[in-house]
Design goal:
four-stranded parallel beta sheet, Rossmann fold, alpha/beta, Gyrase A, domain 2, globular
Length: 581
């Protein structure tokens, strides 16, 4: 609400060419809001910063919004909001995610998670899954149409040995059951057979290679076994997604196999249009701006020298499908940072081919690595990637030990539910509260701490409010309000702690819009952490249950709004809010 008024004042003071100036808005110890626009403008308008700021203030229309406007420091503009305006806005309707939806709304395809069939999901899949799911939740809350796409690895040469191994051990054998319980063990057993095989012994490798040909040719028996392999892996994926609370389902799966029938035609089209050419036996594109260490153009291989297809081919078919068939006007790839060059080359080739029009935004949401305490990519003691299910179970077990010690009066079932909510929430929040393109160190002790910017700290604030409302006998009244409804009672914003809390509540919509625009869930985490801190300060400084009647009603209503905002924000992160902690 402040930014448009400041921009209008800038245009009025200096001309319409400066209307798009982006003022920096931040809190200040001297006022509710501090605006930094004059210093950036000063050079362009030929005025000292303080004089430029004074010109902006003179043109600024904040009647009914601010009680005090003044220039401070080298050219800052300090705004003190009118208390009655804050109170009126807070009571008119509770801040809701769809109260100020961005325009225009988009049709967004989000590619995330993307595990491989017959392989264990490890800690490296955690971030792409968790970050992607939070992004789609936020975008949907903002009103965008979101299409989830789980681009699983379900095709290619390894399936020859996997199918052959499946046929040898038998569908009903314990070895086949590993696809659900320990898929990496199944894969490694097939790989060991393949590597040890010779034509003179068992011929397993030869049969596996022939099985690939049969699969690609659509042999009914081979295809049926492949389908059962994929089905077993889906059961494993869904078990992980259920534990993590991820919104992906089988309906969102669009694996590599989905595009196999289109790859030959795709290559032919690129070659005929002069976008692809043969280089060292392989069909490649050479998108502009990509060079190797030697300075030579960097190739994107779309058909290998042996006639096979790689990730580049499939990814081109994927982006073409998402624009042409799914009608996307925004495509997001929540994929590891090391894939950045590859994805940019795919996008550049797709634009050259006309499959990715300029009007369609394609973005790589880069995901950084999860590190161990040694600063290296997190591994097990044996040096292997940490299995995701084992890691999640350890988080729940650690949380259960804390809950058992701190809340022995709860029933066993209640403690089990709370431990799951806290343990899984702690892992997800630690991931989401870090910029998605940066690395972070996986540390259970820090994740599960009740202090600092952690999931349990935010969850505890919500549980504490539930306890307050429960003691007042008004939990249902305040929690049951519909999203976007006015508070259950009139809120009076009087004390400084009430004012600080109310102002932060009013920033929720702007925060969500920024998360949706920049695709940065850590901004929502930061908002919720600060909200929990401000609530703690409010509760310490402003008695609730012992306050007089009208003040008590007001503060209970304020508690209810904070609870709904905390639980709603956590839900957009994919994190549950415990009843008790």
């Amino acid at each position: 609400m402040v930014v448009p008024r400041v921009q209008a004042a800038i245009a009025h003071a200096f001309g319409d060419e400066f209307r798009d100036t982006d003022p920096v808005i931040r809190p200040s110890q001297f006022a509710d809001i501090q605006v930094n626009a004059a210093m950036a403008l000063a050079r362009n308008v030929g005025l000292p910063p303080r004089e430029a700021a004074a010109r902006i203030v003179e043109a600024l229309d904040v009647d009914g919004l601010c009680s005090l406007v003044e220039v401070s420091g080298p050219g800052f503009i300090n705004l003190t909001l009118d208390g009655s305006w804050i109170q009126e806005l807070l009571n008119a309707s509770e801040p809701a995610g769809d109260a100020a939806r961005p325009a225009p709304l988009h049709r967004v395809v989000v590619d995330y998670s993307s595990p491989n069939v017959a392989k264990e999901m490890h800690v490296g899949h955690l971030r792409t899954t968790v970050v992607g799911d939070s992004i789609v939740r936020v975008l949907e809350a903002l009103g965008h149409t979101v299409i989830r796409q789980n681009h699983i690895g379900d095709w290619g040469t390894p399936f020859g040995m996997l199918i052959e191994h499946w046929l040898e051990v038998g569908e009903d054998s314990p070895d086949a059951a590993l696809l659900i319980d320990d898929p990496s063990a199944f894969y490694q057993a097939a790989r060991a057979k393949f590597d040890a095989s010779t034509p003179e012994t068992d011929g397993f490798a030869t049969r596996a290679r022939l099985r690939v040909v049969s699969l690609q040719a659509g042999d009914p028996e081979t295809f049926a076994v492949w389908q059962r392999l994929v089905a077993q892996s889906k059961r494993y994926f869904n078990a992980i997604y259920t534990v993590l609370g991820i919104s992906l389902t089988d309906d969102h799966i669009a694996g590599e196999s989905s595009y196999d029938a289109h790859l030959a035609q795709l290559c032919q089209e690129l070659e005929e249009r002069g976008i692809a050419r043969i280089s060292e036996g392989a069909l490649c594109t050479f998108p502009a701006g990509f060079t190797g260490r030697d300075g030579d153009p960097l190739p994107l291989i779309i058909r290998k020298s042996d006639g096979g297809y790689g990730y580049g081919t499939t990814d081109l078919a994927t982006i073409r499908y998402r624009v042409r068939d799914l009608s996307a006007d925004r495509v997001l790839y929540v994929v590891g940072a090391p894939q950045n060059v590859h994805l940019r080359m795919v996008m550049a080739t797709a634009r050259d081919a006309g499959w990715l029009p300029d009007a369609v935004e394609a973005t790589h949401v880069q995901i950084g690595n999860v590190l161990g305490e040694d600063g290296k990519i997190l591994k097990s003691r044996a040096g292997n990637p940490v299995k995701l299910m084992a890691l999640l179970q350890e988080a729940v077990d650690r949380a259960r030990a804390v809950i058992d010690a701190s809340r022995p009066e709860l029933s066993d079932a209640e403690r089990a539910v709370t431990a799951r909510q806290v343990g899984i929430g702690a892992v997800k929040y630690a991931d989401l509260s870090t910029g998605h393109d940066t690395e972070y160190v996986f540390d259970f002790d820090r994740m599960l701490a009740l202090t600092g910017n952690t999931g349990p700290y935010v969850q505890y604030a919500a549980a504490r409010i539930r306890s307050i409302l429960r003691k007042a006998g008004e939990l249902d009244r305040h929690v049951g309000a519909a999203a976007g409804a006015a508070p259950a009672a009139t809120i009076a914003v009087v004390e400084p702690a009430e004012r600080a809390l109310a102002l932060h509540l009013l920033e929720y919509d702007a925060t969500l819009q920024k998360v949706g625009e920049l695709l940065e869930p850590h901004r929502l985490c930061a908002y919720l952490f600060e909200l929990a801190q401000l609530f703690t300060a409010f509760y310490e400084q402003c008695p609730v249950l012992k306050a007089e009647d009208t003040v008590r009603e007001s503060r209970l209503a304020l508690c209810g709004v904070v609870l709904r905002r905390l639980s709603g924000g956590l839900d957009l992160l994919g994190i549950e809010t415990p009843e008790n902690m």
